């Protein structure tokens, strides 16, 4: 406990940009204090837990205690304590969009059937630069600039996947994929089943979504809630350069159709990632900060709001366990369940709308599976059921802010 | 960009390509005996004027009606098909017809359910195109897909079983009438929503091009996408015409214009009912052909498929055809005029081919009868097979949801759901 408080103390003193002044171009993930990881009496599914982050620079330096992700569901892994933070494994620093690009490029090098299609992915390099330079390297057919016809080019990607290619379909903004809903629901999700298993659809559908900086209602949508009922697809959300690259690679290698949700405001996160090759498990959640008092489940950008709130909470004497669920469909009920069994209190913090969002499904799943372990009702903090307004102040009030998270935790832990 | 769809190519003596611009002034003239009720004489005259004008400005690629050409070829006494080819075509059309008639019977006997859309009357289109394809070429269809699957080579047994919902069906009973898929025969479905198959077909064509240009494989595979007149007012159609022409994808868009989209007449739904004209708007040839004549369809198909194989890009082929039955077996078919139905019944493609084969001494009545008998037995056997096949068991419920069943995720106990023994029984909690 004391180690954490000390770390937190040190953390609080460092320059943490207040939320209001975070500029999307210079967005920096709030660094966490170093922490000690207790020995666990349960088995953690997943192996990239217990990341050690230290203060100081504007970059987020992560130390990984094991080089490769072990894809098995059950692994006994323990992260080392802060004391050995000097043993930084060799790695290179990059921004999240570069990590995505790296993963994409590695997979394209590895398998010539992997191709990219989308608007402005080729010559323009992608509206968020994820595919920058790839068209020069791989050619205009492998990195295909499509006309503006989401439904048709998504369907085209699906047809290509059925006939042996492995396309990555980019939605310039996830919201645009609403136009491709027909193809994503009927063909992407269902064709493997309706064809009796004859055709696989190994596509990756990816793009930036979420609430940005005054982008307006249509460009600030959270499509994960709309897609979650589609049978036959998997959905993952990346939140750090490490898991962005790992999930990108895993999604490309998966035989299932995977929708990879990126967030507009997270593309410039900086982190050091391993030089050696690794993939992240698509179905696993990520333990961000182990704790004892309360389980906070989150994903994508809200992870950072949660971690910011966590600092305040730690100062106030709370010990939150923060899990980045990462896999939006299916939920990693093992990691989540183990946490619930330990803390008995759950707070879900998400950017989805109140109604029918990922949080709503997660609340139902937790209540159904872990009802006996709960000391308090599951609380879910979501965005308001409001089209995201343009005005900055209004926009701020539609999404969950760290202060609300702190209040909710205090409420739940009474 | 789009090459001349030169009519003279079809006669042996003239060069395949080259400056045939004069020829391109051939207006679209429908042969007098075919009263295509979908387009009146005035529309036709109007279009031919337009075509001349368009040519004068040399903007649109040439479009040609094939009927004139085929008549020309027939008159110089060279037959369009050999005896073997003729019998293959005949057998395929008879198979399509008998199969669909049997479907109607079985439906009313309660052996198949849901929405069943029959192809009676349109056999010339399926046979005319698909019998020119190789096994590795792809076909994409709509919900009216039984006969496309049969023409492509899927066995009658597999299709009938699928309709009965049995495990031996081509999709294990999971697809049904509107989802005929076969990986072996490259039948890429079977789609319930109109238009949603066209992008898939475009993707299959893209695959071919990718294999050739990126993977440097020898790939000449083409894709044929079948869809109806109603679909031609749908955005996906236009989006795909654009992409296919833009990248010169090896695809043939075949419009089975049977004038009716359930109860909506093509004329009431479409501002310009001449669908073939929409091809040149995107930079590809648009061809109109008599879809009740399998030989004419075949000639057009040959040219279109060859174009695609050579890497010259897509073609839009509008086949004037008609469905003798209602939209589906649930459709009372009350809106269509009896006179219209009678007119097209008189142009039954099977009767037409039979007449051609006999008149040109390619086959005898007895041979054709024996083919009909053989097909009857084949279809009966397919029904028996389907009847005798088992229905899917509970364990099949979750099997094909994911290609990689890890997609069902990790359960509370830490194991992947699919490792749960109850999973294969289909009773596991997902």
UniProtKB/TrEMBL annotation, chain A:
TM regions (residue ranges): none
Catalytic activities: N(6)-[(R)-lipoyl]-L-lysyl-[protein] + pyruvate + H(+) = N(6)-[(R)-S(8)-acetyldihydrolipoyl]-L-lysyl-[protein] + CO2
EC class name: oxidoreductase
Residues covered by the Transketolase-like pyrimidine-binding domain: 94-269
InterPro entries recorded: THDP-binding, Transketo_C/PFOR_II, Transketolase-like_Pyr-bd, Transketolase_C
Matching SUPFAM superfamilies: Thiamin diphosphate-binding fold (THDP-binding), TK C-terminal domain-like
EC code(s) of this entry: 1.2.4.1
UniProt keyword annotations, A-Z: Oxidoreductase, Pyruvate, Thiamine pyrophosphate
Cofactor: thiamine diphosphate
Record's function text: The pyruvate dehydrogenase complex catalyzes the overall conversion of pyruvate to acetyl-CoA and CO(2). It contains multiple copies of three enzymatic components: pyruvate dehydrogenase (E1), dihydrolipoamide acetyltransferase (E2) and lipoamide dehydrogenase (E3).
Name of protein: pyruvate dehydrogenase (acetyl-transferring)
Organism: Camelina sativa (False flax)
TrEMBL record, chain B:
UniProt keyword annotation of Coiled coil present: yes
The protein's assembly and partners: Tetramer of 2 alpha and 2 beta subunits.
Keyword Coiled coil annotated: yes
CDD domains (alphabetical): TPP_E1_PDC_ADC_BCADC (cd02000)
Cross-referenced NCBIfam families: PDH_E1_alph_y (TIGR03182)
Free-text function comment from the UniProt entry: The pyruvate dehydrogenase complex catalyzes the overall conversion of pyruvate to acetyl-CoA and CO(2). It contains multiple copies of three enzymatic components: pyruvate dehydrogenase (E1), dihydrolipoamide acetyltransferase (E2) and lipoamide dehydrogenase (E3).
Pfam families membership: E1_dh
Top-rank EC class of the record's enzyme: oxidoreductase
Catalyzed reactions per annotation: N(6)-[(R)-lipoyl]-L-lysyl-[protein] + pyruvate + H(+) = N(6)-[(R)-S(8)-acetyldihydrolipoyl]-L-lysyl-[protein] + CO2
InterPro entries reported for this sequence: DH_E1, PDH_E1_Alpha_Subunit, Pyrv_DH_E1_asu_subgrp-y, THDP-binding
Cofactors demanded by this protein: thiamine diphosphate
Organism of derivation: Camelina sativa
Chain coiled-coil ranges: 361-388
Lineage: superkingdom: Eukaryota
UniProt entry keywords in alphabetical sequence: Coiled coil, Oxidoreductase, Pyruvate, Thiamine pyrophosphate
Enzyme Commission number: 1.2.4.1
Domain Dehydrogenase E1 component residue range list: 92-392
Protein name: Pyruvate dehydrogenase E1 component subunit alpha
């Amino acid at each position: 406990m004391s180690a954490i408080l000390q770390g937190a103390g040190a953390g609080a003193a460092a320059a943490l940009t207040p939320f209001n002044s975070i500029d999307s171009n210079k967005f920096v993930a709030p660094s966490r204090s170093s922490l000690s990881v207790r020995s666990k009496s349960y088995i953690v599914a997943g192996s990239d837990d217990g990341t050690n982050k230290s203060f100081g620079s504007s970059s987020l330096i992560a130390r990984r205690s094991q080089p490769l992700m072990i894809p098995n569901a059950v692994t006994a892994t323990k992260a080392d304590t802060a004391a050995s933070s000097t043993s930084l494994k060799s790695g290179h620093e990059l921004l999240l969009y570069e990590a995505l690009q790296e993963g994409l490029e590695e997979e394209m090098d590895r398998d010539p059937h992997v191709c990219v299609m989308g608007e402005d992915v080729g010559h323009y390099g992608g509206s968020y630069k994820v595919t920058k330079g790839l068209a020069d390297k791989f050619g205009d057919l492998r990195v295909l600039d499509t006309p503006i016809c989401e439904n048709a080019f998504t369907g085209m990607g699906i047809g290509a996947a059925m006939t042996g290619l492995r396309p990555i379909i980019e939605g310039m903004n996830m919201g645009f994929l609403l136009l491709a809903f027909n193809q994503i629901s009927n063909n992407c999700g269902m064709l493997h089943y309706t064809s009796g298993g004859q055709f696989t659809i190994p596509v990756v559908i990816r793009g930036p979504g979420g609430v940005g900086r005054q982008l307006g209602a249509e460009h600030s949508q959270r499509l994960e809630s709309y897609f979650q009922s589609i049978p036959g697809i998997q959905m993952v959300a990346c939140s750090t350069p490490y898991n962005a690259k790992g999930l990108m690679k895993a999604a490309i290698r998966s035989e299932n159709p995977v929708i990879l949700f990126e967030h507009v405001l997270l593309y410039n996160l900086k982190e050091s990632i391993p030089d050696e090759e690794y993939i992240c498990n698509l179905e696993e959640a990520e333990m961000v900060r182990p704790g004892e008092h309360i389980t906070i489940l989150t994903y994508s950008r809200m992870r950072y709001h949660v971690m910011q709130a966590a600092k305040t909470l730690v100062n106030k004497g709370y010990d939150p366990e923060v899990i980045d669920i990462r896999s939006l469909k299916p939920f990693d009920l093992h990691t989540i369940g183990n946490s619930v069994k330990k803390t008995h209190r759950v707070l879900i913090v998400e950017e989805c709308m109140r109604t029918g969002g990922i949080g709503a499904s997660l609340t139902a799943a937790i209540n159904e599976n872990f009802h006996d372990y709960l000391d308090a009702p599951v609380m879910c903090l979501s965005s308001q059921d409001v089209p995201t307004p343009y005005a900055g102040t209004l926009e701020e009030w539609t999404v969950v802010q760290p202060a609300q998270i702190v209040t909710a935790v205090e409420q739940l832990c009474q | 960009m789009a090459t001349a769809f030169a009519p003279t190519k079809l006669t042996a003596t003239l060069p395949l390509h080259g400056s045939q611009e004069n020829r391109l002034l051939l207006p679209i003239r429908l042969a007098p005996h075919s009263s295509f009720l979908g387009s009146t004489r005035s529309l036709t005259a109007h279009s031919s004027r337009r075509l001349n004008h368009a040519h004068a400005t040399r903007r649109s690629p040439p479009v040609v009606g094939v009927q004139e050409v085929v008549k020309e070829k027939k008159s110089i006494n060279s037959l369009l098909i050999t005896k073997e080819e003729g019998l293959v075509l005949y057998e395929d059309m008879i198979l399509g017809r008998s199969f669909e008639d049997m479907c109607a019977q079985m439906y009313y006997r309660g052996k198949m359910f849901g929405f069943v859309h029959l192809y009676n009357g349109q056999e010339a289109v399926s046979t005319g195109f698909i019998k020119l394809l190789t096994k590795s070429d792809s076909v994409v269809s709509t919900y009216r897909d039984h006969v496309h699957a049969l023409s492509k080579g899927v066995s009658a047994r597999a299709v009938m079983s699928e309709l009965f919902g049995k495990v031996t069906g081509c999709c294990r009973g999971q697809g049904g009438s509107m989802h005929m898929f076969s990986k072996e025969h490259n039948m890429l479905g079977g789609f319930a929503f109109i238009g949603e198959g066209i992008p898939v077909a475009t993707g299959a064509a893209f695959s071919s091009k990718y294999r050739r240009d990126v993977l440097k494989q020898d790939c000449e595979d083409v894709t044929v996408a079948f869809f109806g007149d109603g679909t031609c007012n749908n955005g996906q159609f236009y989006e795909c015409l654009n992409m296919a022409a833009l990248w010169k994808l090896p695809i043939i868009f075949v419009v089975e214009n049977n004038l009716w989209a359930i109860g909506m007449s093509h004329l009431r739904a479409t501002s310009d009912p001449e669908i073939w004209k929409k091809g040149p708007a995107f930079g590809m040839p648009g061809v109109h052909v008599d879809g009740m004549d399998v030989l004419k369809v075949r000639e057009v198909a040959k040219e279109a498929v060859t174009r695609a194989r050579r890497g010259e890009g897509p073609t839009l082929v509008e086949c004037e055809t008609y469905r003798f039955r209602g939209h589906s077996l649930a459709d009372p078919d009350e809106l269509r005029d009896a006179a219209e139905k009678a007119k097209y019944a008189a142009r039954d493609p099977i009767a037409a081919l039979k007449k051609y084969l006999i008149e040109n001494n390619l086959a005898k009545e007895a041979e054709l009868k024996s083919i009909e008998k053989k097909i009857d037995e084949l279809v009966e056997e397919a029904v028996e097979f389907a009847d005798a096949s088992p229905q899917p068991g509970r364990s099949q419920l979750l099997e094909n949801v994911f290609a990689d069943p890890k997609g069902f995720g990790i359960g509370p106990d830490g194991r992947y759901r699919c490792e749960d023994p109850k999973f294969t029984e289909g009773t596991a909690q997902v």
